[in-house]
Write a structure and sequence with these properties.
2 domains, 5 helices, extended
Length: about 120
């Protein structure tokens, strides 16, 4: 994800003859290296998990084993741990801070509420 964000800021003018892919990689690594907090969730396979093990300072098996409501958070100076993902629709900490979404106001065709 960081490389995609870096790609928007990487053009031939700023790369000074370095390949655009290499420029994006270097900028993405700088963003990772300078971040105080990193989060990852939705890791669906072992290849993706393996690529994140060094960044998140945890075993790939821990990342693949996370449930849908969990994320892995690395905080500079505090290490890495698995946490519950915030749910802005249902967590009390977010109550009253968002407008009603008309797409989730009505029950779905299955009879289950969209919220």
């Amino acid at each position: 994800m960081l490389q995609i964000a870096a790609a928007e800021n990487c053009d031939d003018q700023h790369c000074d003859g370095v390949s655009k892919t290499l420029c994006q990689t270097i900028r993405g690594q700088a963003e990772i290296n300078n971040a105080a907090v990193l989060q990852a969730f939705g890791i669906s396979n072992s290849r993706m998990a393996q690529q994140l093990t060094d960044v998140l300072d945890c075993p790939a098996a821990d990342l693949v084993a996370m449930g849908n409501q969990e994320l892995r958070r690395y905080m500079k100076g505090q290490g890495s741990r698995t946490c519950r993902r915030s749910d802005y629709l249902n967590d009390m900490a977010f109550a009253g801070l968002w407008d009603v979404n008309p797409f989730f106001d009505k029950p779905l065709s299955s009879g289950i509420s969209g919220v």
